[in-house]
Model the fold of this input.
Amino acid sequence: MSVVELCREDEIAVVLVDNPPVNALKHEVRVGLMDAFSQARDDSAVAAIVLACAGRTFIAGADITEFDKPPKAPHLSEVIALMESIGKPIVAAIHGTALGGGFEIALGCHFRVAAPGARVGLPEIKLGLLPGAGGTQRLPRLIGVEKALPMILSGDPIPAKAALQYGAIDSILEGELTPAAVEFARRVVREKWPLRRVRDLDEKLAPMREDPAKFDELAASSSKRTRGLHAPAAAIEAVRWSLQVPFDEAERRVRSAFQELRQGEQSKAQRYIFFAEREAAKVPDVSPATRPREVARAAVIGAGTMGGGIAMSFANAGIPVSLIETGQEPLARGLDTIAKNYRNTVKRGGLAADEMERRLGLIAGSTEFERVAEADIVVEAVFEEMELKKRVFGELDRIAKPNAVLATNTSYLDVDAIGQSTKRPQSVLGMHFFSPANVMRLLEVVRGEQTAPDVLATAIGIGRRIGKVPVVVGVCHGFVGNRMLRARSIEAERMLLEGALPQEVDGAIVEFGFPMGPFAMGDLAGLDVSWRMRKAQGLKSEIADQLCEAGRFGQKTGKGFYLYEAGSRTPRPDPDVENLIVETSARHGVARRPIDKQEIVERLIYPMINEGARILEEGIAARPSDIDVIWIYGYGWPVWRGGPMFYADRVGLASIRDRLGEMAAHSKDERLEPAPMLARLADDRRGFASLVESKKAPRQ
Ligand code: CAA
Ligand code: NAI
Done:
């Protein structure tokens, strides 16, 4: 079976792409399309052509794996040029998602029809690219710059209904799509509809051309979170060319901008993360044939900071959820916070009011623990206390359905010990969400010693269903993310004692690409949380402990490492904190010295990489790329730097090993001694990536 088939239904030719799983435009598909369209052009019995796809989706874009290889003709723009030159109507029949090059092909057709559930978009920006085959030129011509630029800069697809409203598609067709599209094509022929090539349109460009300042305004407001990224600026320029130069000239420029981005480090990192995210859902020793347990209803125990957000995540995905609390007062508080969060989203235009009501209707607050008996999955999010968690799981064991998945959202506690408080440890695992749980996409799925494969598969499946990025990790203190974070925090505080100030440490790492530094993050999360935990473990933290003893818990008290004006979340350096730090250095007999940005970045990041190597060696994470996904989706690691382990390979493990050795000698902290795995790889001149090249696992 060829990846592109051509068949005829009377005078209508159907070009069918069949390249599972997502009909990506690999080389054979492009060749097949050239052949099929040429044949249809040359066949005088063909009056019109329908382009359709087999399987679950229309063409989902270029084959991303080909971007690492030299480009091979025919290029996508040649396929589209051929389609536009045929002189017979071509109708794209879109189901699933028409993305990137897939949507660009559809834009090269004369008409576009779609199934009701279809979505269209140009997600290239998420891969550090810009749409390279006409998307930046045709989409503005078709729907106007005001609508096209935000779509290109966000990369988010839009549903068929919005696409119809914008004029990106011509019709939504009910029923089986290909026959309906054939019928549509017959009508085009019968009624002699004019052949409109998108590249020839100009009407929607004219207003913006006359008002260039408006373009700059739109570009500025559409590209908020793009600090450090190259692709958004390139995409803005490309769309500007649609207003300034003829189509073919713009296309030439776009192609060269695309090639530059494709070969750049940022896009390589972003492409790596695309596949890393999908790889993370595969568990090496769990067969892809493992059937997850059915989940129709969830329960969340504890309606605090995390429980509320977790309940929202279920409701957002249409899953009914019971939210269980100890009393009316905390329950009402939790439900109020949820309602307030939804209202804010509605106010910002992110959610329709009736959809908010529907979601709220899916969350059933209760003070009766017995309600867990209805749930297929239970997520516990009560206080971080082992005895309490054990008691809750004991109760769950008594009441929950025999086949229910029992998950804890603990940040640090031993998931195996929690499992042991039930008679069904095989059904217990960790589902570690990140705050705010309704927003953050990372989900660490913590696999206990006895967790059954189908329970793991259920947690991964439900994680994906509620829009999270699940990554399987093993049991240890802090799992992967928080354990590495701790390595960073220790070094951050050490630098304060040696001579740096919080704003200098934070400033350097923000410049590296993080949204905020460790001290601003501590203030946001609340310094008291880790203080309590340190006390429980008999640990100390020179500066942070003193701040907490003085009642400075961070933003919630208006003071922490920084000062916050009433109602403001902007950290301002505080002279009192500076004095406290300088005095502490003096007390320890440390002569303070300036610490430059490069040293700050190395000292924050290399200890994390070192801890990451230990995590790999212990098997707590299955692959380096899992660690990278955790840091990107859970902690704001800049995606264009690919995650800590990817970054380590770029820097070179030998230089990291040497630097860690110096740091260990200087601070006398043996945790900074290069981890055996890191040292071994460095000695062999290998990188972390080499650990996995031969270990591809089947999909979960
Ligand atoms: N190239 C190569 N492989 C791809 C791919 C692509 N464009 N899109 C998806 N895949 C692979 C995935 O890696 C995955 O493989 P494994 O099963 O081996 O892990 C498989 O297809 C299924 O993908 P998902 O798990 O993501 O499936 P889903 O149903 O959850 O989502 C999707 C489907 C919405 C299409 C999603 O895969 C997606 O967003 N794909 C990327 C789309 C994209 O970015 N397209 C633009 C590419 S750039 C471009 O097009 C530029 C140009 O032409 C010039
Ligand atoms: P929180 O203090 O905001 O909420 C805990 C809630 O549990 C309270 O509303 C309390 O009334 C309720 N509760 C206590 N005992 C209960 C019981 N027996 N039955 C029902 N409800 C009960 O705490 P938070 O921050 O939501 O943390 C919850 C869990 O999530 C902890 O294990 C924590 O370590 C973990 N976690 C917290 C994160 C954070 O950033 N806050 C991030 C990730 C995990």
